[in-house]
Automatic annotation (TrEMBL):
Coiled coil: 129-156
Lineage top rank: taxon: Archaea
Entry keyword set: Coiled coil
Residue ranges, compositional bias (Low complexity): 57-70
Protein name according to UniProt: Uncharacterized protein
Disordered as annotated region, ranges: 46-71
Amino acid sequence: MRIVSKLDPDTYDEIRELVGNGSYRDIDQFIQVAVDNQLRIEKDEESMELSDGGTKAAQAEQSETTSSESVWGYSVPENIPIADPYETDREDTLLFSQYYRFFPLKFVLLELAKVTADHGGAVELSTFRGHIEERVASLRDELVQWEEENDVKKQNRKSTGLPKTDVKNPEYSMKRFLDQYVGKIRKSDLKPNGMGDDLALIAFQPLDEDRCLVQLSPAGRQLVTYTNPILASGPNNTTISSEEAGFIVTHIYETLPTEFGFMEEVYELLEEYEGDSYTKHLDECREYLVSVPGFDDDPSENRLRSHTAGTLSRMVELGLVNRGGKRGVYVADTPPSEFAN
């Protein structure tokens, strides 16, 4: 079936440039990738229902607090409450392709440390989501302003992963951010879902369909003790410090062995086919991914491209690989195995 859609000239030119660079076979493939990615998000949203995002009164109080505080500055509270992460088998867990960065999660972890330390224990997920909705707006606005003033290219933006305002549905963008980086509870089985739970950095304690308590796990508390460059001193810094990166890679090795294995697979491909776009070697990625329980048995090229691109984006932030001079080209830098105990 053919669908006719109007695109503004700038958008069309950007798509043609991507096709010309070899990132996509043709314009139809680009559109199919975009549609597949959005459908995957929508299906995930339909299967996950989440509770209300906190009371208006609580959000108003948080807004007053936010306005009186500086965005930059890193302080770790004393006596951070912790609990064991939600008990589940994470051996074959692969991180969602659209978890592009660890920086947004680090922001959430620090805020959770502060809120639970002030509260003296775990807090309700709905209340914490409301808190983050208020706090992240200031962080995002500061980063976006800096990016615009310094004409920062898209691939180098520090605000990647944070909720957007320059979209048709900012509310949906915020909800997706909260779902991915704060987390949510699936009402069908009360199982938590989100990057913090996948990595066992946030401890979820579901009570019923509408209530869940959250606090940091021991690993989450340890990660918070490493100062984040941007949160401490502003946007003219890296999104993740070398100490944070080292801890995260080692933690993935210990907690998500299958995810770590795919990172190694991708790294070895970059070494073997230096200078090639990763999209030329998706068959090798396919072989690894189809062996993972729960992954598609017969994934499309678009599915493989999306998942591998998400992994590469995180590996760039961690300093394991660097972006090459052409789109789709990455340069191996530090093998993940160096962080394996």
